């Protein structure tokens, strides 16, 4: 019997799962604390090993075939090798450390070629073709993250500022001031800069609600943000070789809960690539360990 362990280390929590391969069967699932190595490396590794300790406790070491770990922020932190070495030494097992986005790509496409679009607090577009990974966007809330909740919030406040500079009052001014609990534009800007990324991103929920109420400026913000993300999908596909893969998986709170953003994204992409089929990710991304294992076995046998 061969056991595989997949771990999805997200910013809010870690999910680890143990799977068998023949037949494919979920043996155990364990949840732990935050796993973002950028925010707190020591705490993230401690939470990770706590989960792995539970998953490996009942597995004979000789039967543990692979530990696949997807970690939020690992590419930014540049500490994948460090984490991999730590886990390998602790559990004496073949260990691979990748980004949580790549983990989601493998899971969302069931190991097949294609693309993944994530739009939550941040955003990124990933692709995989013939064993190679490609990335577009995901450069953080200051330089990118188009289509994300933070991007929507930022675009909304910029709309207010643009109207203010023109001597006009935006339809978004009063709702945003009320949400930020301030009374003037200068105070709104000051508070936006002072708040953390997560708190600012929550303003997107207000914009979504206003759009549902047919607020034209809120609708424009959502559509423009979604179109920017859709362009990144098109850019990714332009980097694919011929015989483009046709599947795109969608993930993240914005794409799951905001129908206007989702519909704008898919419609805009279809204008350039009408044959693409979109699908949602319905299982935890720790399941990707199954597909990584299949992929590596195919490479060995080819």
Automatic annotation (TrEMBL):
<dbReference type="InterPro" id="IPR043129">
    <property type="entry name" value="ATPase_NBD"/>
</dbReference>
<protein>
    <submittedName>
        <fullName>Kinase</fullName>
        <ecNumber>2.7.1.8</ecNumber>
    </submittedName>
</protein>
<feature type="domain" description="ATPase BadF/BadG/BcrA/BcrD type">
    <location>
        <begin position="5"/>
        <end position="272"/>
    </location>
</feature>
<dbReference type="InterPro" id="IPR052519">
    <property type="entry name" value="Euk-type_GlcNAc_Kinase"/>
</dbReference>
<keyword id="KW-0808">Transferase</keyword>
<dbReference type="InterPro" id="IPR002731">
    <property type="entry name" value="ATPase_BadF"/>
</dbReference>
<keyword id="KW-0418">Kinase</keyword>
<dbReference type="Pfam" id="PF01869">
    <property type="entry name" value="BcrAD_BadFG"/>
</dbReference>
<dbReference type="GO" id="GO:0047931">
    <property type="term" value="F:glucosamine kinase activity"/>
</dbReference>
């Amino acid at each position: 019997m061969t056991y595989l362990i997949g771990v999805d280390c997200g910013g809010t929590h870690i999910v680890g799962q143990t799977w068998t391969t023949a037949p494919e069967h979920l043996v155990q699932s364990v949840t732990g604390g935050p796993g973002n190595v950028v925010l707190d490396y020591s705490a993230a590794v401690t939470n990770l090993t706590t989960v792995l300790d539970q998953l490996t406790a009942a597995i004979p070491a000789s039967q543990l075939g692979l530990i696949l770990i997807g970690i939020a922020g690992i590419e930014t932190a540049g500490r994948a090798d460090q984490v991999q070495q730590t886990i390998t030494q602790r559990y004496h097992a073949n260990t691979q450390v990748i980004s949580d986005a790549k983990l989601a790509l493998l899971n969302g496409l069931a190991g097949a070629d294609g693309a993944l679009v994530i739009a939550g607090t941040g955003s990124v577009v990933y692709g995989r073709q013939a064993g190679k990974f490609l990335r577009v966007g995901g450069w953080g809330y200051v330089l990118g993250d188009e289509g994300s909740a933070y991007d929507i919030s930022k675009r909304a406040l910029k709309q207010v500022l643009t109207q203010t500079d023109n001597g006009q009052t935006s339809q978004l001014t009063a709702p945003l001031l009320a949400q930020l609990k301030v009374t003037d534009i200068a105070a709104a800007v000051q508070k936006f800069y002072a708040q953390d990324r997560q708190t600012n991103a929550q303003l997107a929920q207000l914009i979504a609600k206003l759009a549902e109420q047919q607020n034209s400026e809120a609708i424009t913000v959502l559509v423009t943000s979604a179109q920017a993300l859709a362009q990144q999908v098109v850019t990714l596909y332009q980097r694919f070789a011929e015989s483009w893969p046709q599947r795109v998986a969608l993930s993240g709170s914005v794409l799951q809960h905001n129908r206007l953003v989702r519909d704008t994204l898919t419609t805009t992409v279809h204008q350039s690539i009408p044959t693409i089929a979109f699908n949602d990710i319905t299982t935890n991304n720790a399941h990707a360990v199954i597909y990584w294992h299949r992929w590596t076995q195919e490479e060995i046998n080819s």
